[in-house]
Amino acid sequence: MPHRPYIVGNWKMNGSRAMLAEARAIDRAAGRYPDVQVALAPPFTLIGALREAVSAMGVGGQDCHVAAKGAHTGDVSAPMLVDTGADFVIVGHSERRKDHGEGDAVVKAKAEAALAAGLGIIVCVGETLDERDAGKAEAVVSGQVDGSMPEGEAANEAVAAGKVAVAYEPVWAIGTGRVAEVPDVIAMHAAIRARLLALYGDAGAKVRILYGGSVNAGNAAELLAAPGVSGALVGGASLTAEAFLPIVAAAGSGEA
Ligand SMILES: O=C(CO)COP(=O)(O)O
Questions:
Q1: pLDDT, tens only, 70-91
Q2: Which of 41, 144, 166, 238 has an alpha carbon within 20 to 30 A of 28's alpha carbon?
C-alpha cells in the first residue's frame, strides 16, 4: 500500500460519555499499530471529551458549516471544531447529502472552510443503487469528485501535505451489511484517482481513498488489501473496541 493506511470510525449520531471507555480502549490499541493512522469522528457533543481521553488517535467532526461564525442556529463551524480539539472533519457524507440536501457545491465550500481552519478533510462520495443498476456509478462518482473537492492554493497545499482524503461509500452498502464487490471497489478507486490527478496534477496521488460501507472484522482484510484502497471509513463497526480493533489490525503490521 503506497499510503499509510487510514482507519476512521464515524460514530454518526451515536454515543454518550459512557462510550468514552470504548474510545480509550481503541486508543490504547491504536498505539500498538504505528503504521496505521487511526481516528474517530464522534458527534459534536463528544469531541472535546474524546480529545482529552485519547492520545494516539485523531479526532474529527462529522460536518461543519461553510462560514466561520455567524447567525446559523444549531450549526458548528470549522474553527469551532479546531477549538474543541478536532484535527479533521468529514464532509459530504451521503447522510448529510440526503438528510440536509447538501449538493456538491456546498460540500466543496465546507471542504474549503475546513482547510482554511487548518483541519484535514475526508470528502465522501458514492452512488445510489439505482445509479449503479443504471450503469452510471462511475459517472456519478466522478462528477461528485469534480464538484466536491476543494480548489485553490490552500487545497493544493493540503493535498501535497497529505491532509486530504476521499471516502468512496456506495450509498446502498452503508449500514446494510451489503459490501461492494472488491473488483468494483478497485475500479471505482481507480476512477476517483484519475479525477484527483486531473484536479491536482501529480500531487493528486497523495490523496488517500478510503472505502466505506459495511466494513467489519470479517471483510476488512480483503478490502484493505485491494489495490488503490488506502483505508476504511467505518460506521457501525466503529462503536466498540471489540468490533473496530480487528479492522485496525487488518490494516497494520503490529501485534494483534
Ligand atoms: O457510512 C459509513 C461510514 O461513514 C459506513 O457505515 P457502516 O459501516 O455502518 O455501513
A1: 999 999 999 999 999 999 999 9
A2: 166
Q: Is the ipTM of this complex over 0.95?
A: yes
Cβ-contact 81, 119 below 8 angstroms: yes
Separation in Å, CA 75 to CA 65, 70, 192, 256 = 6, 9, 30, 40
CA of 234 to the centre of ligand 1 (A): 5
Indicate the domain borders of the chain: 6-251
- State the pTM of this model: 0.97
CB distance 92 to ligand 1 below 6 Å = no
Ligand 1 neighbour 78 (Cβ under 6 A):
no
Give the three cell numbers for residue 112. 474549503
Rounded CA separation 211/16 (Å): 26
Sign of the alpha-carbon torsion through 123, 7, 96, 129: positive
Using CA atoms, how far apart are residues 3 and 231, in angstroms rounded to an integer? 9
| Residue 103: all three cell numbers together | 449538493
Q: What is the pLDDT of residues 38-61, one digit of tens each?
A: 999 999 999 999 999 999 999 999
Q: Which CATH architecture describes the domain 6-251?
A: Alpha-Beta Barrel (3.20)
185: helix, strand or coil: helix
**Residue from 3, 65, 93, 189 carrying the catalytic annotation:** 93
Q: Which residues pair with 209 in a beta bridge?
A: 166
Which residues in 88-100 are b (16+ Cβ under 10 Å) and which e? bbbbbbbbbbeee
Query: Residue 68 C-alpha to ligand 1 middle, in angstroms?
Result: 28
